[in-house]
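Example 3.2
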Amino acid sequence: MTYPTLKIIHITGLALLFMGLTGVLASKYAGESTIRKRWLFHASHGIGMLLVLASGIGLGLQLGVTHPAPFWIIAKFGIWLLAGSAMILAIRFSRFAAIILFYFAALVYAAAWLAINKPSL
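Structure, written as tokens:
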């Protein structure tokens, strides 16, 4: 795939991932407790995670990244892991919705900063 196509898939995956997270957070905050009514948000999060990982690997290959991976790629993988585990925060700690939303925004900011600046150690 071409680089622009992979970037579009990556950004779409990012949108799905965080729509899923905020949807679960909002429904739990509103008092909805059954997973049956939240399944769409869980599916959105999972599909978004898959798209972000697959397109991220493709983008790295397009950029010619070799072993060992540079710091910014390792950091973005760490952010991907944090975004994946953020579903637990959204489900269990929805009473702290404002703090969790700030955490979600911080993850997006950090990932965008790393993608734009590509720092090395």
